[in-house]
Amino acid sequence: MAPTEQQRKASRTKELSGSKKVPNARVQRYLKSTESKLKEDGKNTLLLKGIKASEAMSRVLQELRALQAPRVKLLNKKNQIVPFEDQQSLEFLSTKNDCALFAVASHNKKRPNNLVIGRTFDHQVLDMAELGILRFKSSLRDYGGQVFKKRIGTKPLLMFQGDLWQQYSTTDYPNLQNLLTDFYRGQVVDKILATGIDHIIVFTIAPAQGTVLIHQRTYHIQLKKNPKDLSSKIPVPLLQPCGPDFDFVLRRTMWADSDLAKAARRQPAELRKKKTEKNKNKTTTIFGETMGRLHLEKQNVEKMGGRKNKALRRAEKAAADQESMAVESELDREKEEMGREFKREFGFVEQD
Amino acid sequence: MVAKKEKSKRSKNVEEEEVDYAAVADQFADLSDQDSVEEEDDDDDDENDESSSRNSADSNDEIENSGSDDDEEDSQDHDDSEGDEENDDGEEDDIVRKMTTNSFAGTEPCSFDMHNLLAINSHQMDTSKMYIKKAGKYNDEEDITIPPESLDVAVNEKYLLEKAASGCTQLIAALWQLPIESSDIGPMVSLPIHDGSKIPRQLPPPPPKKETKWEKFAKLRGISLNKEKRSQKVFDEATGEWMYRHGYRKANDDTKEWPIMEVKGNDDPYADPWEKQREEKRSRKDKNMESRMRNEERAGNLVKGTTNKLLKNREKARMAGKAGGDLDRYNVPPSGVPVDLRPTKGSGDIKSMKRGKASITNALLATQRSTASLGNFDKMLEGEPERKKNHVGAKKRKYEGSTDKTVISTEAERAMKVFKHVVDGGGAQKEKARLKGHLAKGETAYDYEFNDGLGPSTFQKKKGRAAAGKMKKMTKKRIK
């Protein structure tokens, strides 16, 4: 049972004050796994029944559990939950069971064979989509015993066919594509065993009988050598339908508003896609030296100030001395000249 | 982000080939199981092959691989056959040729998000091929879990399978283009780290750890925090071995209770040094607890104000404890006591003549305990709030019939035990408890075993010579 925020704080208070014993290592490890992580694993799924669930819908949930095992929890009791009206109960259950994805199955006259799939962010419902199942062929019961089944815990290949998945402005289908990808993609991994791929889930969307139908088909994959190009190492898959097969129609939806949607997709700085450096200024010579190129504006050298050192100061001083000497000598000369003129004019020497 | 994709123009080299899947499946059937790829080892040849095909087909991936520097190309969406217009035509033809040799890939190229192993075929579905109008009811499908009663059209499963096969082939080809490492389980493909579909997280990323008050101060003053400097073990002189620095049985432990403690300097010779030591340790513990709690509160891990609340409550409890059990005796009148024996308003610190909440809850506890069903089926008054389950863990006494085997074998023993307890009393343990005041619980009036100040009775019935008792011969039997 994952604790809620309130419970976490309360138990932390007790631990610090010494009134509660710190739990053993196994419990601590589990509690740590329910906290937020830098890089997230796959999400767990919670499968519930709504107010009234038919036997067929129970089978649908069992099928989903088989598809998503072991990261899935199937609850047996019926719940008084109407997802589109009140999300509080759903949020509580998903928090307690530590499941970010959920599916609520119900059946009534107005909405027969109803499956509401959705996901949470930060213990609150983020997106929900209501699917009306028009046809369901179960892999567990309806396909004969000869059929290959996928192994538990394998990651599926996904495929979306049809142009309606890309219609962003007018329809909900792009959002539904994102939700379905999230729902079925399984564990998030860095590396995958190339030969371990054993099934593909295909979602096809097409307009039919007045509405838009979505067909989900699951095929078992066997990787075979390419019979037309035996030299190639790339295998070619042999597909065999193994179920489960759904034909559904999209009923109501509830998408997160753009702020919340953006916040939910925000990754921590460490994981964000790094902009690759565009090194326009760097070049490498044939000798292996990396050269950089600086681009400067035109400099007005005359108006720039430079560093002064002893030699420059001496030179300045000498220049200043020279100048002053020159000025002095000029002044003396002028004085002499003026004296001569005076003498010429007045006949005697000027006396100060 | 999945980019919008316009309808692709067919390159000249592509032949319009209808994939006959049944025939293809037959071809596969001819190959023996030994030829399937799972059992092949990944040799070096494979890697060389991958690298050559990887360079040309790099534009397949929407997301850049963790090594490639094809910046400009990766910012746009590319499919297999079209390639980048900036590429040479020769390269483009090369890619297309590779696709056509793999005829199972079909004619509609897909875009990929390899982080999620996702292929997107954004071509329009041909509804004329996809759906078959049902004449009447779809007979052979009646037996499935949810039969298609409300559907007017039936889906052409073969067509869907063909399309799926082509997409799957492309996806697997794209998967094989990614960097492969061979491991002991088999060839491991490294998936791109970046998520092309931008799937939201389940929880917001963890906030960066907030600094404690000391860390802040140390940073400001440039004091080093000693976190990496200190070693876990320290040499202990007393035992001559390396012991842990902190915790149980730590090295160089001064806090042990020595039987003799010196009186140093200004200390009062009549003070209790062990009491002093315990007081100091208690105060250090409390201080540490308080500062830890305040740091966590500042960081947001605790509700604001819990530290102050907790400290206040602790103070209160300590004060109450110091005053002794007397407060309880007068403030909470015992439940079983008749009204007229209760302390009156004049005497003691009592606020009203009413029983009060505490007294009522005690009485309820006592009556529940006395009931066979432990209070589970008690009638509730109108308007009474739900009761907490008070005696959840309490074990009820089992019925022990007199003819039961186990009872017969253990009965004598148990009776003797009880008898001994009565005759010998509780022993030293009970005396201690009584002196401490533990037994003066006061739930009901009959729970009092308090220290009345009297010692063991010194009353003698027989006096004089008779008090010594009769002289009896000490036989061997009697000695034993």
From TrEMBL, chain A:
Q: Where in the cell is it found?
A: Nucleus, Nucleolus
Domain spans labelled Brix: 43-259
* Listed Basic and acidic residues bias regions: 1-18
Picking any one GO molecular function of the record gives: rRNA binding
Q: Which domain of life is it from?
A: Eukaryota
GO BP of this protein: maturation of LSU-rRNA from tricistronic rRNA transcript (SSU-rRNA, 5.8S rRNA, LSU-rRNA); ribosomal large subunit assembly
The residue stretches assigned to a coiled coil in this entry are none
Nucleus keyword on record: yes
What are the start and end residues of every segment in region (Disordered)? 1-27, 303-338
Q: Which GO terms describe its cellular component?
A: nucleolus
Keyword annotations of the record: Nucleus
Stated family: Belongs to the RPF2 family.
The protein here is known as Ribosome production factor 2 homolog
What organism is this sequence from?
Fistulifera solaris
From TrEMBL, chain B:
Protein localization: Nucleus
Q: Keywords, A to Z? A: Nucleus, Ribosome biogenesis
Which InterPro entries does the entry mention?
Ribosom_reg
Q: Which GO terms describe its biological process?
A: ribosome biogenesis
Bias class Basic residues marks the residues at 1-11, 388-398, 460-480
**Which Pfam families does the annotation name?**
RRS1
- Show the segment(s) annotated as Disordered: 1-95, 262-354, 381-402, 457-480
The answer to whether UniProt assigns keyword Nucleus to this entry is yes
Q: Locations of Basic and acidic residues compositional bias?
A: 262-299
GO CC term, one of those recorded: nucleus
- Coarse class of the primary localization is nucleus
**Residue spans of biased composition, Acidic residues class:** 32-50, 59-94
Briefly state the protein's biological role: Involved in ribosomal large subunit assembly.
Family membership, please give it.
Answer: Belongs to the RRS1 family.
Name the record gives this protein = Ribosome biogenesis regulatory protein
Q: Which organism is it from?
A: Fistulifera solaris
